[in-house]
Specification:
By secondary structure, the chain is of the alpha+beta class. The chain is about 15% helix and about 35% strand.
């Protein structure tokens, strides 16, 4: 059983061209609210961020809601993310997942949030919405 927290607000999944600079101010929100993930590859720069901080000129998918697996977890532990995404897959809820050093995050479409929370609760996870 895991503790899962629903973060406030809506999130966006964004794509910028490969090699794009991190947009100014993206990592320095005024109130520090929300989580931001930036991933750079040879093909693209992907950004996950609160919907009100979407970079200009990005291709954007929104609205998503962000679930945080309450951690931290030691990096040697296995199955943490699988125990979250498995029930969501069984419920046919599409996801975008990303991880930090301490924990995992899962985005679900805002329109599927109730289904996602029910699936996670049924799987035995404690969800704080």
């Amino acid at each position: 059983m895991l503790d899962i927290a629903l973060l406030p607000g809506e999130y966006a999944v964004c794509r910028l061209a490969a090699g794009s600079a991190v947009p100014a101010g993206l990592l320095s929100a005024g109130d520090g609210a929300g989580v931001v993930s930036i991933t750079s590859s040879a093909d693209e720069t992907s950004i996950i961020c609160p919907a009100d901080r979407v970079p200009r000129d990005a291709t954007v998918e929104t609205p998503w809601r962000c679930l945080q697996v309450v951690g931290p977890f030691h990096l040697a532990l296995t199955g943490i993310l699988a125990s979250v995404v498995g029930p969501l897959a069984d419920a046919r809820v599409n996801i975008v997942a990303f991880s930090t050093y301490d924990t995992d995050y899962v985005l679900v479409p805002a329109v599927r949030l109730d289904e996602a929370l029910a699936a996670l609760s049924t799987a035995g996870h404690r969800v704080a919405a």
